[in-house]
Amino acid sequence: MKRIAFVPALALAGLLSACSTGPTIRSDYDHGADFGRYRSFGFMSPLGTDKAGYSSLLTERLKTATRGQMEMRGYTYSEQSPDLLVNFNAKRQEKTEVTPAPPGPYYGYRAGFYGGWPGYGWGSDVYQYTEGTLNIDLVDARRKQLVWEGVSVGVIDDVAQASSPQNVEASVAQIFSRYPFRAGSGVPQQPAPAK
Predict the structure, then answer these.
(1) Where are the domains of the chain?
(2) Whole-structure pTM value
(3) 3-state SS assignment for residue 161
(4) How confident is the model at residue 21, as a pLDDT?
């Protein structure tokens, strides 16, 4: 018989965050788009994070953090006909990871000599945790075409803390560290290395 150990989500999240350097950040852009003509930005209406029909606290925090990142790169905020439209999508997903039991008794190399510690886990381990994904999209407002996408995927230790202003600010900054353009320049700059 195999014993299955259930590890609480918070303990696993702590373990995973201790083993990793943070969320996985990736981005991509339309190499055929003329980024040199983009000088202003606004927000989509409605935003992907406002599925309930009203602006959430998370949306307002994302807008504030994104506006700061865009303005730092020389873009001007405009509610009237901006060049780029910003959209957000966020989701949480419960995940399960199964680590199979090692082959043979106690990894096989002690077979016949002596056994493992009493209570040592001989069965598969099942880890349950919450994974969060945040997408930031920049859309060419005139063509209605996605031109840049930044994505952050990571384990959420504390759901309430994940949407705090400080964590949202940090997540948005990490995503925009992969954005290679400045307002009015079509020449990509080297983004920060992925973390």
Answers:
(1) 7-89+131-176
(2) 0.72
(3) helix
(4) 52
